[in-house]
Structures are given as structure tokens and as C-alpha cells.
Amino acid sequence: MALELGTNSVSLGKTPDGRRLIVLHDVDASVDTVWDVLTDTDCWSDWGPSVTAVETTDRHIDDGTTGRVRVAGAMWLPFEVTTCAPYRWTWNVARLPATGHFAEERATGSVVGFEIPLLATGYAPVCARACQRIAALAQQREA
Questions:
Q1: What CATH code is carried by the domain that includes residue 65?
Q2: Cα–Cα distance measured from residue 131 to residue 108, given in angstroms and rounded to the nearest whole number
Q3: pLDDT digits 0-9 by tens, 64-119
Q4: Phi, psi for residue 124 in degrees, rounded to 5
């Protein structure tokens, strides 16, 4: 069963990491452009409402990328990308499993999504906003 959260759909689903809350948003851009936005650390603070800065040696993440993110403008937390394959990546933040990120091709455009651990379902509105920002950034890159 899917619910609506603004222009996003939210559902409970099975992921490679188990059952997660999944937030989806349609994007009028190619899946490759959405993937580029998702993996480009230079723009994480542009789309991530809780991320205000990123420090890492890798502009585009890959398996094993490490660094730290500043959240809420105050606290720096270490991160490690645990999986990264076209078109899905996951990470641990402060050594805890965090959101999964993915893009999928659709008949017209693509979709961007987040996989939220069930203990963090209150994070769904933040992920919904991030999906909308990712869509806007991807559409700008293709304009």
C-alpha cells in the first residue's frame, strides 16, 4: 500500500537490506542524470535538507568512499559508503546503517527514491523533500 507525502509516494517494501520505508518521486530527467546528482558529493548539501557540508576525497562516491557530513549545521558525523552500483547506493553514518538511495528508469523520465530503516520512519518527510530537490537539480542539468 502506497501513501502520498506531497508529490512523493511512500510505501513499505523489501530492499536488498530488508524491509524499509520507501519514498519515491518522479523525475523528468534521465536516470543517468539523477544518478549523477545522487553520487556527486559537491551537491549533497543542495539536495539533503539535513546535510550542510561534506568532506571527502571523492567527488563522486563509490564502494568504500569515506568522509564526514555536517548535519543541522552543527555536528560532523563520519560516513562510509557500503554499496554503490548503478543505480543504488547505501551508507553508514556514525557507524549506523542509514538511508539507501536509488534511481530507476521509467517509460518517461525516471524516479528517485530513498530506502529508510524502519526505526527512522520519522525521517520520511526529510527524504521526501530531498527527492524533490534531486528532481529539480536533475531537471536543471538537462535544461
A1: 3.30.530.20
A2: 17
A3: 999 999 998 789 999 999 999 999 999 999 999 999 999 999 998 999 999 999 99
A4: -55, -45
Residue owning grid cell 560532523: 76
DSSP state of 40: B
Q: What are phi and psi of 47, to 5 degrees?
A: -110, -20
Residue 115 and residue 10 in contact, taking contact as beta carbons nearer than 8 Å: no
The cell numbers describing 54, all together, are 561534506
Backbone torsions φ then ψ of 22, nearest 5 degrees: -115, 125
**Domain total in the chain:** 1
Alpha-carbon distance of 117 to 106, in angstroms, equals: 25
What's the domain range around 89?
2-142
Q: How many residues does the chain have?
A: 143
